[in-house]
Amino acid sequence: MRCPQCNGELEPGSTTFTDTRNAYVIVLNDVPALVCRQCGEALLEADAVRAIQDVLKTLDEGVSKLRRVA
């Protein structure tokens, strides 16, 4: 597979995923990804995307519960 940014070679590696939500900022380190050897662009693998979506859903539900308590 080639990098969509620079057409360089992708290799297995890891990256940091950061997302800002309404009530919080989440930073996940060492997320499995395909990383370009040339430019460093990281493409998240499908399993990692699903896991991140699960984490975000759980956090959103927890934040929603906190708002109801307050």
Fold and architecture overview:
The protein is α+β, with helices and mostly antiparallel strands. The protein has a single domain (10-69), classed as Roll (Ubiquitin-like (UB roll)), CATH 3.10.20.860. The protein has one helix spanning 46-69, and strands at residues 10-20, 25-36, 42-44. A hairpin with a 5-residue loop joins strand 2 and strand 3 (42-44). A 3-stranded antiparallel beta sheet has the order 1-2-3. The protein is elongated, with a radius of gyration of 15 Å. Helices cover 34% and strands 37% of the residues. The chain is built from 1 helix and 3 strands; from the N terminus they run βββα.
Topology record:
Blueprint: E1 10-20, E2 25-36, E3 42-44, H1 46-69
Antiparallel strand pairs: 1-2, 2-3
End-to-end span in angstroms?
Answer: 49 Å
Beta-strand share of residues? 35-45%
Structural class estimated from helices and strands: alpha+beta
Helical percent range?
25-40%
Described by strand count, sense and barrel closure, the largest sheet is:
3 strands, antiparallel
What fold name stands as the CATH topology?
Ubiquitin-like (UB roll)
Average pLDDT: 92
The CATH class: Alpha Beta
Instruction: Count structural domains.
Output: 1
Summarize it.
It contains one helix and three strands; from the N terminus they run βββα. The chain is α+β, with helices and mostly antiparallel strands and 70 residues long.
